[in-house]
Amino acid sequence: MAASADEERPLLIRHLPRQDEYSQYTSDGTVDIYNKPALKRSTGNWRACFFIIGVEFTECVAFFAIGKNLVTYLTGVLHESNVDAARNVSAWIGSSFFTPLIGAFLADTYSGRYWTVVFSLSIYTVGMLTLSVSAFLPQLTNSSYNRDIHRVMSYLGLYLAALGNGGIKPCTSALGADQFDSADPVERVAKGSFFNWYYFSINIGSLLSGTVVVWVQDNVGWGVGFTIPTVFMVAGLAVFVTGRKLYRYKKVEGSPVTRVSQVVVAAVRNYIVVLPDDSSILHEVPASTEPNCKIEHTSQFRFFDKAAVVASESKEQGAATSPWKLCTVSQVEELKMLLRMFPIWASMIVFFSITAQMSSTFIEQGAAMDNRIGPFSLPPASLSTFDVISVMVCIPVYDAVLVPVARRVTGRERGLSQLQRVGFGLALSVIGMAYAALVEKRRLAILPGMMSIMCRRRVRGAGAGKVFTAIGVFEFLLRPVAERDESRAPRSRSSPVR
């Protein structure tokens, strides 16, 4: 099982082999729209994922239509300084990446993934409509007092879009993964391919926004430039709702944040308790009553094991104990997983602070340079297109060329481990930022006569760094979840309906 999990997945799967059904129902507890056990032959799999990938594509068109050229909009239309514009762009991007924490919590605890996406798409669409109307205001009236209204409406639309993004980003990928039964070997392979297509749709949306939409914004008008992604969002909402009968839904089981918090509180409450030498006597519910798979106990971070120690008075009374006083070993191990992954997650803050510059400082740098390519003039915001192209080229090159070479050198099935891949990507990012500093130093000396080809080289380097770092860390963070799914598979096959 572990060996098969390490096998390299192809970038694209032309067709799936004929599926051997272990059961007519899925084995992971998913249900259909009528809250009945999901049938494999009529729900989920690629028939449902096309709708999910489609809505992710439309959301990316809208997101990058704003983000790629936002600094130009703030400086050219709202007349902000370069410093203020760069700060406000970073604040908006930061908000867009913070709101998914809220969206994920609501989806896990209350509304489920499907309804969270529907509600968020609606908010996102309202935000895009508000932004589009605000962009048309200067053309509709020339009154001076409308400048403040224009500014308020622009930022209202921007942050409504950021709020809507919070429910889409964490839920579409998870909802797509829910369409494949991890207990079925054929669907498990298809699940790995889904993430390739998912990331591919993100880059296609980014490419479309960075070329066509940005050109419309700079040459036709901002109103039309924001209306185009608004139409995409309306279409995405309609497409997503259309596929509702094909989706597999996971029942709401509570927020992981709550489960982790319970472990911390219980461990602190039991800080005076002596840990037993035999970890097998720690509290764990029977497998027959636990909907999720059990996680084996580890000896690291032993302080949190105190959350699973059964007090003597609880044994005597035999009554149910509050989850804020007593947790299962699996809950404790979930927290330990997060703690072990925290250093890797923290290192990504530096990486994404670098990529954030591509939507602010790098565009301002490109606007001060000569962007002509023969008879054509390249909009500064379109410079990031070279990043997208670099990613789309490097992914198949990595899969078809670098992995086989690295496999022969390292003897690993994947060629490079996830952490080696992340480290190599971070090194490329450092080189890219050093190169950007040299470009800026030279630009200040030469001023506007410097060709933007220097920027394009730097952006292509950033794209190559993404292939290694972003996808590598995604695989690393996803691995514990995949391992849990695989450990659940043998038990699930014997009980397909729950």
TrEMBL record:
Transmembrane stretches, start-end: 46-66, 114-137, 197-216, 222-241, 344-363, 383-401, 422-439
Signal peptide segment: none
Signal among keywords: no
Highest taxon listed in the record's lineage: Eukaryota
InterPro entries: MFS_trans_sf (IPR036259), POT_fam (IPR000109), PTR2_symporter_CS (IPR018456)
Annotated GO biological process: oligopeptide transport
Listed Pfam families: PTR2
Broad class of the protein's primary localization: membrane
GO cellular component, one term: membrane
Molecular-function annotations in GO: transmembrane transporter activity
PROSITE patterns recorded: PTR2_2
Protein family membership: Belongs to the major facilitator superfamily. Proton-dependent oligopeptide transporter (POT/PTR) (TC 2.A.17) family.
PANTHER family, alphabetized: OLIGOPEPTIDE TRANSPORTER-RELATED
Protein name: Uncharacterized protein
Lineage of the organism: Eukaryota, Viridiplantae, Streptophyta, Embryophyta, Tracheophyta
